[in-house]
Design brief:
Largest sheet: 5 strands, mixed
Number of helices: 5
Strand content: 25-35%
Shape: elongated
Radius of gyration: 24 Å
Number of strands: 19
Helix content: 10-25%
Strand order of the largest sheet: 3-17-14-13-12
Length: about 375
């Protein structure tokens, strides 16, 4: 293969599918007929049929006009096919990006704006959590976690063991189970299923109740919410630190998201709640999640950190839910404590969390 042609094909594939996101096989056959086909491993059957059809119809590619059509097809239609592809390792970011999910943020006067790319990342976290609550689609399955037991851990805390249930997930599919590795708080789809202790290398099944199991359920286990070979997770986390899990069918047709916060930083006042979740290392960015407010009502949020004060005026959604990001760092301070207060019509819940090196989350054991 001519080196220049190979480079051209690689460039085309990178632009169409995203560099390093796919295992690509690009081939160019030169000699009167040009065939360009960028094929992904385990790619969706429709796209494979398209590639094979183009390969079998070589006569179509003998004119410059038809070659142009092929290029346009790759650029315009490959992203749409990518949403239906079978590789679970590459779907998460795509799924979260299908519809925009913007969130507001607060920052103290005189502080720089958040780094480029950080707000979309925090919006992905918030959208994941919304899907884990069923807020975006009440009919979509989502994960919930049932505590089995807990044990003491180093430092005086505790590590709990949970079973995982995904009600509404079809039984006739094989699944993969992964997590957003929040140690770096960066969404890396390639590593979400990489850890064997997160069941990423195992096939996962569900019974009639949605209980996740590491083998196919026996008939007597179909209606049970506990089983000998149920999937269990044991996240070791700091206070306010979330762990985000994903169950996805191997054919890419079913996804169920879940967020688990073993040690929540949450306070309630007269039915209104405010929770702070660590969104970046050392709590330099937080998600503030508020619930229980009247639908479509105004919610005033006051954030205080080491003598600085910031205000935000937000509106609850139809479920009385509000979410925003906060950057608690203050000029001249390496660490501190941030207090967030949400004011509703008849409630005033507030929560405090430390930020800085002392607030660095614990290492995870999924």
């Amino acid at each position: 293969m001519h080196p220049g042609a190979l480079r051209a094909c690689d460039t085309l594939c990178d632009q169409a599918f995203g560099k390093r996101r796919w295992e690509l096989e690009c081939r160019i056959i030169l000699g009167g007929v040009i065939w360009i086909c960028c094929r992904c491993k385990d790619f969706h059957a429709s796209w494979l049929r398209f590639c094979k059809g183009m390969a079998e119809t070589k006569g179509m590619l003998q004119s410059p006009r038809n070659i142009l059509i092929l290029f346009l097809s790759i650029f315009l239609f490959a992203p749409a096919f990518s949403y239906a592809q079978n590789s679970t390792r590459s779907k998460i970011a795509d799924y979260l990006s299908r519809k925009s999910y913007a969130i507001s943020y607060s920052i103290f006067q005189g502080q720089p704006a958040p780094p480029q790319g950080l707000m979309p990342l925090l919006a992905h976290q918030a959208k994941w959590d919304a899907m884990a609550r069923g807020d975006l689609n009440s009919q979509a399955p989502y994960l919930h976690f049932e505590k089995i037991d807990s044990s003491a851990s180093e430092g005086g805390g505790g590590v709990a063991r949970y079973r995982v249930v995904a009600a509404g997930v079809p039984e006739n599919k094989v699944f993969a189970f992964g997590l957003w590795p929040a140690k770096s708080f960066v969404l890396d789809p390639a590593s979400a299923y990489a850890k064997e202790d997160a069941a990423g290398q195992r096939d996962i099944y569900v019974n009639a109740q949605g209980l996740l199991m590491t083998r196919k359920p026996k008939p007597v286990e179909e209606e049970s919410l506990k089983a000998a070979d149920e999937l269990e997770v044991m996240p070791a986390t700091a206070r306010a630190e979330p762990v985000r899990y994903l169950l996805e069918s191997k054919d890419g047709e079913v996804q169920a998201f879940g967020t688990l916060v073993p040690h929540p930083a949450m306070e309630e006042d007269r039915g209104c709640r405010i929770e702070a979740r660590i969104a970046q290392p050392a709590s330099t960015a937080l998600l503030l999640i508020m619930d229980g407010f009247p639908a479509k009502s105004k919610v005033s949020v006051v954030v205080e950190s080491e003598g600085e004060v910031a205000n935000a005026a937000l509106t609850a959604d139809a479920n009385g839910h509000v979410v925003m990001a906060d950057f608690p760092y203050v000029a001249g301070k390496a660490q501190g404590v941030v207090k967030a207060t949400a004011e509703g019509r008849n409630c005033l819940p507030s929560v405090e969390v430390p930020w800085g090196p002392a607030a660095q989350p614990a290492a995870k054991t999924p």
